[in-house]
Design brief:
Length: 691
């Protein structure tokens, strides 16, 4: 139940003076919400200092200035010429220029001999000074006041800055000052204002103070970090109070599987499995992430975990984002577990009628111990008796609701999530703070290093010839295009490139893209896998999970348009077998500085964590991990690239608060709970649902 003190923050926008039904819709779309809280968190993007009240002679081109002048002349718009109003003071003249201005408004606003205040950016006009479409024009004898410091907001065409300031003022007047939730020693050390004072400093500044604006923003960013860490910490405490079936480590089964492998597992793989096995041996639900680079061997860890569950009589559900990946994982896990007689099956949307019912009946009868699938796993007719472990692959592609639907099929099952997308530590803390994380930081010994080269697209004919020769030697290749058809990418479209290659190379060339039906995509991939078609032209639909160990060549057209993390994932489709592999990055000249740096990073290293850090540095957090799909709310104030230290501090503080007051019943606990509800309501809801 929401604290009554917070009720004003959740007032509807329609309760603001001047906000009718039509304007409410526009305002809600602009700020991304429908409450006063959403409005006050629509923070300014910058501030304009309008205190510069100089004489006309003193103003400089390029600055924002405010001047007092007398209307000396009006030239109305004609033909292609704009309207021009000349102002004068004792030091000279300045022109105010308007395109497509209403003549009546001009004559009413600018009467000859009248003194006006004009503010805007100073430009040059025929050797003199001008302001094109001034931001403000006021009469000194009117009640209108020019703000000395003006917040600048992200805007929409149908709402004026003056309206935004009016709505913001009403909301700020109507919300209460709240008891402080930040540790007083930290407040003093950082010189942070109170919560409401920070909002007032940003929305209604009295002085132009860039350092003060950043201090206020930083305080609110910390509030958000603390709120999220508190919500995640409470989720962890709630989970620890629930009982989950403890699953003992099956040492004999584990040894049989490892001894039968055609390779020796890395120390990192076995360390990660040890973490998982220990977690599952406890009577509380495991929530662990296995984070490993492309080809680091995460699937083996999941297979060992599934074997541990099966040895105890339980079932494992393994959810993947695509049918291709779900079936590949079923094959891979099935190979690992075959020596101990554990049966693995795949269940996807492709399975219909009798074949689907046969799979489900075998699961109910305990004949299938591991079921790999897509969202089909949590359909209502899928019974998973004794569901003890849920494994989620490429977890950032699933929302919280997906995970809840699947875990709800068991009694507090253990959950293991896996990600092949290396995550900078800052990002991992912010996004996965409710998970324990194990990192597989090394690749199996048999993995080949992929040689990477950047080549201008003017040499594409040479690249086609090289690929053709490789095909003649029996090699297989991926050719990645940035778009499906020529309307978006010209010759670099997947459809056109397939036609070009098919006309040049003496072998079948298959095509895969997101518009194709799933069965057609699967069929094309199968032809590459079997060697029937040695070349697959594709869009980034094959970015994750496609496993063709025989593929040795990856060509990526317009590589400069892709993010580093995506390029790294695509490159990870080769080098998965025992043959030497290569990746060619075809780029269009001239490269931007950031484009050049991205390609240089990829050429220099195959370390996914180093690449992720570089991507984070070059692009910021953006949507590197598909955060829009992760089920977690976007940050309102916090900026991962700038506020990493705040996340660390907030995590430490949240732990100490929860340790001292687990129920948040004390004075600071109540205050912190309010911060959590204001900044992280969706995480609080998620906590209540038990994820």
């Amino acid at each position: 139940m929401r604290d009554p003190v917070l009720f004003p923050f959740y007032n509807d926008l329609s309760s603001l003076p001047g906000v009718g039904p039509k304007l409410r819709h526009v305002l809600a779309r602009l700020i991304g919400g429908e409450t006063w809280l959403d409005l006050i968190f629509h923070l300014p993007v910058s501030w304009i200092d309008r205190r510069n009240r100089a004489t006309i002679e003193e103003v400089q081109v390029g600055e924002i200035a405010t001047i007092n002048g007398t209307v000396d002349k009006i030239d109305h718009a004609r033909m292609k010429f704009p309207a021009r109003i000349r102002l004068r003071d004792d030091t000279g003249f300045i022109t105010l220029t308007y395109f497509h201005a209403n003549r009546q408004w001009l004559e009413k606003t600018f009467e000859i001999g009248k003194t006006v205040i004009a503010s805007g950016k100073i430009g040059d006009f025929q050797g003199g000074r001008q302001i094109v479409h001034p931001d403000h024009v006021l009469s000194p004898d009117k009640d209108d006041e020019l703000p000395e410091v003006e917040p600048v907001y992200a805007m929409t065409a149908t709402i004026t800055p003056k309206q935004i300031r009016k709505f913001m003022s009403a909301a700020l007047d109507g919300i209460p000052a709240l008891d402080e939730w930040i540790d007083p020693h930290l407040m003093k050390r950082k010189n942070w204002p109170g919560f409401k004072q920070a909002l007032l400093r940003l929305h209604q500044p009295k002085v132009y103070d860039p350092d003060g604006f950043e201090t206020a923003r930083q305080r609110l960013a910390y509030d958000e970090a603390l709120a999220r860490e508190m919500a995640m910490g409470q989720a962890r405490l709630a989970r620890e109070r629930r009982h989950s079936r403890p699953i003992p480590r099956a040492v004999g089964v584990e040894k049989q599987i490892v001894d039968a492998l055609p390779f020796k597992p890395t120390r990192a793989q076995m360390d990660a499995y040890k973490d998982v096995a220990t977690d599952m041996g406890r009577p509380i639900p495991m929530r662990r992430m296995i984070q490993g680079d492309v080809g680091s061997g995460k699937t083996l860890v999941a297979a060992l975990a599934a074997a541990q569950v099966s040895a105890d009589g339980g079932i494992t559900a393994f959810m993947s984002p695509t049918e291709i990946l779900a079936r590949q994982q079923a094959e891979a896990i099935g190979r690992f577990l075959a020596p101990v007689g554990i049966r693995v099956a795949a269940l996807t949307g492709r399975d219909k009628g009798a074949s689907r019912e046969a799979i489900l009946n075998d699961v109910r009868a305990g004949k299938i111990q591991v079921l790999s699938g897509t969202q089909a796993l949590y359909q209502s007719d899928v019974d998973l008796p004794e569901l003890s472990l849920v494994v989620i692959d490429e977890q950032h592609r699933f929302g919280v609701a997906d995970r809840l639907k699947l875990t709800a099929k068991g009694a507090s099952p253990h959950m293991l999530v896996m990600s092949a997308t290396p995550i900078p530590r800052t990002m991992a803390l912010a996004v996965h703070g409710d998970l324990d994380i194990s990192v597989i930081g090394e690749k199996p010994a048999n993995r080949q290093e992929v040689v990477t080269a950047a080549v201008p697209d003017t040499r594409i004919d040479d690249v086609i010839q090289a690929v053709s020769r490789a095909v003649d030697r029996g090699e297989r290749a991926f050719w990645i295009c940035p778009a499906v058809d020529s309307e978006d990418a010209g010759d670099a479209s997947a459809i056109q490139r397939r036609d070009v290659l098919a006309g040049y190379i003496n072998a079948p060339v298959e095509l895969v893209h997101g518009r194709l039906p799933a069965q057609d995509r699967d069929a094309a991939l199968e032809k590459l896998r079997t060697g029937e078609a040695p070349i697959l032209v594709a869009t980034t639909v094959i970015e994750v999970g496609v496993d063709v160990p025989e593929a040795t060549i990856m060509v990526i057209e317009h590589a400069e348009k892709f993010g580093l993390a995506q390029l790294h994932q695509l490159r990870g489709r080769v080098g998965r077998g025992e043959k030497a592999s290569s990746c060619l990055l075809l780029y269009q000249s001239p490269l931007t500085e950031s484009g050049k740096e991205r390609l240089d990073v990829l050429r220099r290293t195959t370390d996914g964590f180093e690449i992720a850090e570089a991507d984070f540095r070059l692009r910021g957090p953006g949507d590197l991990l598909g955060l829009r799909q992760s089920g977690l709310p976007a940050f309102r104030v916090l900026e991962l690239a700038r506020d990493a230290n705040l996340i660390e501090t907030a995590r430490t503080d949240a732990k100490s608060v929860l340790m001292a007051d687990p129920t948040l019943a004390g004075a600071r606990g109540v205050a912190v709970r309010r911060a959590r509800d204001l900044f992280a309501p969706r995480i609080a809801d998620m906590m209540a649902d038990g994820d």
